[in-house]
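Page header: ASSEMBLY MODEL / two components / 378 residues total.
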Amino acid sequence: MNVLLPIWSGYVRLTTRFPIVQTLVPFIPVIALWWIVSAAEVFPKVFFPGPVEVWKSFVSLTYKGILPDYLEDSLIRLAVGALCGIALGIPLGILIGVSKRAHTALWPVVLFFQAIGDIAWLPILLIWFGFGLTTMTFVIVYTVMFPVIFNTVLGVRSVPLDLFRAAQSLGASKFAILKEVTLPGALPNIITGLRNGLGFGWRALIATEIIVGTSGIGFLMFDARRAGSVVEIMLGMIILGTLWYIVDAWILAPIERATGQRWGTVQK
Amino acid sequence: MKLVRTVLGDTRGRVVLSVVGAYVLWQLWLTVAAPAKVMGEFPANRERVNVLVTLPFAPERYHVQAFQKYGRMAGTTDNGIELRNVKKTDLTAVARPYWVTKVEPLKEGS
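Prediction written out in full:
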């Protein structure tokens, strides 16, 4: 017990100073287990390469310019698709949230199209647009849009009615109410929707790249399958997880937290 | 301004900004370094030229495909890609990737 205490206190001090250590530590047993299983050759190396082989593949693909280029392609596709999805989803969500007529007219249609999964669009998109950026962008926009719409509607609906009444009694115009009450009140939910939408969009992007891509991380993985290169497939999977963790934990979650702290108080 | 202060005040924010800054600088460097990789005398009176793109490794399908938008692929050598009918104005774009060592006129009959 006495031996463990200084180790634990040292770990706590270290993680307080470098929070990244806290993120990396849970992966140590996972990587160690992977290493041991791979080194013991429980499965043939060609089917289950170890961390060293994957690292070498990472270095080689980066040196040859393949990995950075594919990564850039995937990120640009996600950014373009997400921006379009957000630009469509937020206004539509606000419209459905604030207007009963719009809700009556659009809600069944939204639910209908939400039920058609993004990948289910691929056959018809391939006929319409072929194997290209338009098809991929459409799928990402489609995937991002629905979580954004649903969360925006939820956000708008969850703004207390008293706030609308207070603004109206102060003589605020409809636009002023939208700008000063509806949007700030709905913002925490909108940001949650963006976070969910981007998560779904990221997965849809990889799936689309696997099916229709000529570049990107999804394409890299599927192309490696053709060559029987498990090491590149594993590398692709690790990159997907790492990148999404960084984007979510380092960018989206802090934005969501900050928005909740700043605008979530509207409901109090 | 408050947003900028918040981002700069957070370690993760600084790391993300540093990565974005490093990426921009890297792209700038590639643009600046590209003209120096175009070597040799290209015919002055021709708008389109044949080039040999040299890489530090044997080209793979990705590298061959990457250059197809600039010209017609004529073949590959040990560490090179032969491209025909490349616009002279595109030569720096061909030389821009960091994995391109040099771009030079293709010797006819090679």
